[in-house]
Write a structure and sequence with these properties.
3-stranded antiparallel sheet, about 400 residues, Aspartate Aminotransferase, domain 2, binds pyridoxal-5'-phosphate, Aspartate Aminotransferase, domain 1, alpha/beta, 15 helices, 2 domains, 7-stranded mixed sheet
Length: about 400
């Protein structure tokens, strides 16, 4: 009955875990959510106020498919200031979330049968978006510390390789790629005539000495070959508003515009107007959120790594921790047997009332992804409960 495309899609494991969490909560269970990748903060007031003004001023009609000029100009200003990258408004395509921007870029560049190199662990949607576009995802293992392994990329090259999909800061690992790692990938793209799609939605969530560098900034050649994807969801706590963009060569930007024109048209008009001054007016709020995330990262990391058998690198970015939990495989409690990370997630949901996502969803068995986009109090309670539940496994 269904098309081959529909039949081949794997439903999102993160959404599935969320559905289970909602079910338990509806039945009265007290569940702490570490599964959801969205800031728990309110959207900054200047953005909310600008949205209300836009609605009152009647900014409720279709806009150009690729977005309103003042927002495209504000994005160009941001890319120059923050990333040292010079784009003109016709190189920007504004979309309904970073996810649509990413999909536009994959559809614009990927032919049927083209191979797309994706370092793993990776964001749940990458593999499915590539499959939807007719491409073939090729999963490239990272190093043990989740840094990029250029040799693994080189080994995977074939005549059909077309694209590299990068994400730094990374979901789920929190890794932030260095200038050297990115320069190496830029060279590889240049030598082998490949394009890079760079998902930078966690750009503003960086801790310690790490710095965000876009692959587009590593050389003029890499600039030409990179489609930069970014969005407002994570930086400005705007997940429900649905706003993102690509910055790329004009021909690619036009192709993104053409796809989007037939799929959804413009992103919501008053949301675009609300975001025009976000980069200029919300720097303090963004910094406050970053500092809160950093405290939570430090606390949760300390608690997790104090639990017997749990190993976890302290990541430099995003709001995720991805510990290795395989020491608990083969154990059980009251008939609940833990064979893998999915079993352990289900056990933690039942026994500890905490929700997290098993690593298989990100192509990384043996691990669990915890999002620390939750209050310090909730993280404290959740970690206490997890510690107690793990002690029961024999
Ligand atoms: C790595 C990554 N890219 C893109 C997105 C999509 O973000 P949005 O569509 O809300 O901008 C997410 C959301 O979780 C993400 O983690």
């Amino acid at each position: 009955m269904l098309s081959n495309r529909a039949a081949n899609i794997t439903p999102s494991a993160t959404h599935a875990m969320n559905a289970r969490l909602m079910q338990r909560r509806a039945a009265g269970a007290d569940i702490i959510a570490f599964n959801v990748g969205e800031p728990d903060f309110a959207t900054p007031k200047p953005i909310v106020d600008a949205c209300i003004r836009a609605l009152q001023e009647g900014k409720t009609k279709y806009t150009p498919v690729n977005g309103i000029t003042p927002l495209k100009e504000a994005i160009c200003e941001k890319l120059l200031q923050d990333n040292g990258l010079s784009y003109s408004p016709d190189q920007i395509c504004i979309s309904t979330g970073g996810k649509q921007a990413l999909s536009n870029a994959v559809f614009a560049l990927c032919n049927e049968g083209d191979e797309v190199l994706i370092p793993i662990p990776c964001y749940v949607s990458y593999v499915e978006i590539v499959k939807l576009a007719g491409g073939v995802p090729v999963l490239i293992p990272t190093n043990e510390d989740f840094s990029l392994n250029a040799e693994n990329f080189r080994r995977a090259l074939t005549a059909k390789t077309r694209l590299i999909l990068l994400n730094s800061p990374n979901n789920p690992t929190g890794a932030v790629y260095s200038a050297e790692e990115l320069a190496e990938i830029g060279r590889l793209a240049e030598e082998n005539d490949l394009y890079i799609i760079s998902d930078e939605v966690y750009e503003k969530l960086i801790y310690g000495d790490a710095a965000h560098i876009s692959p587009a900034a590593v050389s003029p050649q890499a600039y030409e070959r990179t489609v930069l994807v970014n969005g407002f969801s994570k930086t400005f706590a705007m997940t429900g508003w649905r706003l993102g963009y690509t910055a790329s060569r004009v021909e690619i930007s036009r192709a993104c515009n053409a796809f989007q024109g037939h799929m959804t048209s413009c992103s919501t008009s008053f949301v675009q107007y609300a975001a025009v001054n976000a980069f200029r007016e919300c720097t303090d709020e963004v910094e406050k959120m970053r500092l809160a995330f950093q405290k939570r990262r430090d606390y949760m990391h300390a608690r997790l790594t104090a639990m017997p058998g749990i190993h976890c690198k302290l990541p430099d970015g995003a709001f995720y921790l991805m510990p290795d939990v395989s020491a608990y495989f083969g154990k059980s409690h009251e008939g609940q047997f833990i064979r893998n990370a999915e079993d352990l997630c289900n056990y933690l949901l039942d026994e500890a009332g905490i929700a997290a996502v098993f690593g298989e969803a990100f192509c990384m068995p043996g691990t669990i992804r915890f999002a620390y986009a939750n209050s310090l109090d909730n993280i404290r309670i959740g970690m206490d409960r997890m510690e107690a539940a793990l002690k029961k496994l024999k």
